[in-house]
């Protein structure tokens, strides 16, 4: 029995340990993927520099082409320029592959003519001109091609069939027909491509990605090995990482899918590839995860490069996704507006409660003042009695003869005075207790207490503003003339800065600002006018600039 208990305890500890390790690995992977997202964002921000580098490479090739006279060199340079434009500028790619076709026909080079026609077919397919692509591809005879061109031909036919299948979603029979052709051409690629061609490896991915088992795992491991060999900023790396992500998606390994899809996007952006599938997949994923800002950024980038590349297929997908993202933005804004309404209702409720509290405090203050007046009257009476007693004492002290009955009268008078004093004291005490003046003294603050409260409010307000916008003062000073800059001491803002801090936060109405800062409306008007005079901007420009302070 004891051994059984120990065994169960050990098993539970083992499960907890495994769960902890799994959570640690998951957290580490999430941090690594976030670092990759940051790298991708940085590349997108600097995409103009990458485009400039690519344009310089293309211009160098064009210069060499202008200097070249030999057919071989001209054809080679035309193809090199076509490869640069292939997924960058469809019109230019079409121009140079057409020039390659003219050269091949001029010198009667059949293989190069086929190669140029395959380039034209690729451009048509990538741009969604599928009827033109079909016409070009069906004009070629695969049986007369050398093996290396035949595998390329089958690969492009497979891509063309996948696009035709996508466009035939409304026709089940046609959709199935193109699906069968897609499978047929995939098999043809495997039969004609050599194992050292990337096309051969990717064809195996597309053929076996839906078939679980050792073969799919072997292909995945082969891709991982090949990925280590490729340059991470090349188009081949992008295609490989994208296909590897597809395999991990079939294995339900979400973390590795995301990692490889980001790596594919990084390589695409670095290589200035404008026919990007990875960023669209990432934008869709981020949209589903509720990360609308980053999803919108990637989707917009894909749309921009899709327009530049003139890819109808990509633009069609991007427009659908952007409509969904835009609708989500509308829904989010509506929800935020509803939350703002609730917040304003809550503030209004608190304001009503505060006004009621102030009403009761004022009424209690009046009672206190009345009690103080009564106390003052009582003190006057006491002073009068004390004066009478002092006079009586003087008379008694100056009298040389005091008889027994007179002494008795004095004692009686004193006793009566004491009783009256005691009775009046008790009466005052009862009134004080009934009015709860001691509690009111603690509750009702003096003017110094009010000042302390306002000071604490300003300190908290300044702390919040400087925490939200650490560079607020520096940015605000940039709107003023140099000689009019405002200096902040000990982390405290002045009234001028507080007013414009509220404007920066969206509170532009002077009455609301005055109410918030507990100052007069004229003070707000004066400070805003003084600050505007310190700037060289117009009133509208200055107000707009203040609202943009500390925005990235």
UniProtKB/TrEMBL annotation:
<feature type="signal peptide">
    <location>
        <begin position="1"/>
        <end position="19"/>
    </location>
</feature>
<keyword id="KW-0812">Transmembrane</keyword>
<keyword id="KW-0732">Signal</keyword>
<dbReference type="InterPro" id="IPR011990">
    <property type="entry name" value="TPR-like_helical_dom_sf"/>
</dbReference>
<keyword id="KW-0472">Membrane</keyword>
<feature type="transmembrane region" description="Helical">
    <location>
        <begin position="342"/>
        <end position="361"/>
    </location>
</feature>
<dbReference type="Pfam" id="PF19904">
    <property type="entry name" value="DUF6377"/>
</dbReference>
<keyword id="KW-1133">Transmembrane helix</keyword>
<feature type="domain" description="DUF6377">
    <location>
        <begin position="268"/>
        <end position="514"/>
    </location>
</feature>
<protein>
    <submittedName>
        <fullName>DUF6377 domain-containing protein</fullName>
    </submittedName>
</protein>
<dbReference type="InterPro" id="IPR045957">
    <property type="entry name" value="DUF6377"/>
</dbReference>
């Amino acid at each position: 029995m004891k051994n059984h208990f120990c065994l169960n305890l050990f098993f539970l500890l083992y499960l907890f340990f495994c769960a902890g390790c799994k959570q640690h690995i998951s957290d580490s992977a999430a941090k690594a993927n976030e670092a990759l997202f940051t790298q991708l964002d940085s590349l997108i921000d600097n995409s103009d520099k990458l485009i400039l580098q690519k344009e310089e490479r293309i211009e160098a090739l064009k210069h060499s082409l202008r200097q070249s006279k030999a057919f071989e060199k001209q054809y080679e340079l035309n193809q090199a320029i076509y490869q640069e434009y292939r997924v960058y500028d469809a019109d230019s790619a079409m121009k140079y592959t057409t020039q390659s076709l003219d050269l091949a026909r001029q010198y009667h080079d059949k293989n190069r003519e086929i190669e140029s026609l395959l380039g034209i077919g690729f451009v048509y397919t990538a741009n969604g001109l599928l009827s033109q692509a079909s016409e070009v591809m069906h004009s070629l005879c695969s049986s007369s091609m050398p093996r290396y061109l035949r595998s390329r031909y089958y690969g492009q036919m497979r891509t063309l069939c996948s696009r035709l299948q996508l466009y035939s979603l409304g026709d089940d029979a046609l959709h199935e027909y193109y699906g069968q052709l897609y499978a047929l051409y995939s098999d043809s690629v495997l039969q004609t491509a050599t194992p050292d061609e990337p096309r051969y490896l990717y064809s195996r991915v597309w053929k076996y990605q839906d078939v679980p088992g050792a073969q799919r795992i072997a292909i995945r491991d082969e891709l991982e090995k090949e990925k280590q060999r490729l340059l991470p900023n090349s188009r081949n790396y992008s295609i490989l990482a994208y296909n590897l992500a597809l395999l991990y998606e079939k294995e339900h390994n979400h973390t590795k899918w995301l990692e490889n899809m980001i790596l594919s996007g990084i390589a695409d952006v670095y290589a200035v590839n404008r026919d990007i599938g990875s960023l669209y997949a990432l934008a869709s994923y981020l949209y589903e995860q509720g990360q609308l800002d980053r999803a919108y950024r990637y989707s917009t980038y894909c749309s921009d490069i899709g327009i530049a590349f003139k890819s109808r297929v990509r633009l069609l997908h991007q427009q659908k996704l952007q409509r969904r993202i835009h609708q989500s933005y509308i829904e989010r804004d509506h929800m935020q507006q509803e939350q703002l309404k609730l917040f304003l209702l809550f503030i209004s409720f608190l304001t009503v409660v505060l006004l009621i509290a102030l009403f009761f405090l004022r009424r209690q203050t009046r009672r206190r003042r009345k009690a103080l007046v009564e106390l003052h009257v009582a003190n006057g009476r006491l002073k009068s009695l004390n004066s009478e007693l002092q006079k009586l004492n003087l008379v008694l002290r100056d009298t040389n003869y005091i008889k027994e009955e007179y002494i008795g009268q004095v004692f009686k008078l004193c006793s009566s005075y004491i009783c009256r004093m005691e009775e009046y004291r008790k009466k005052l005490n009862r009134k004080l207790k009934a009015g709860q003046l001691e509690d009111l003294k603690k509750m009702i603050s003096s003017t110094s207490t009010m000042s302390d409260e306002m000071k604490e409010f300003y300190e908290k307000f300044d702390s919040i503003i400087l925490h939200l916008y650490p560079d607020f003062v520096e940015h605000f000073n940039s709107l003023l003339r140099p000689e009019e800059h405002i200096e902040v001491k000990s982390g405290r803002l002045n009234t001028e800065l507080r007013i414009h801090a509220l404007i920066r936060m969206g509170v532009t109405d002077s009455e609301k600002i005055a109410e918030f800062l507990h100052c007069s409306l004229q003070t707000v008007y004066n400070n805003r006018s003084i600050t505007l005079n310190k700037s060289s901007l117009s009133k509208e420009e200055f107000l707009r600039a203040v609202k943009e302070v500390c925005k990235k």
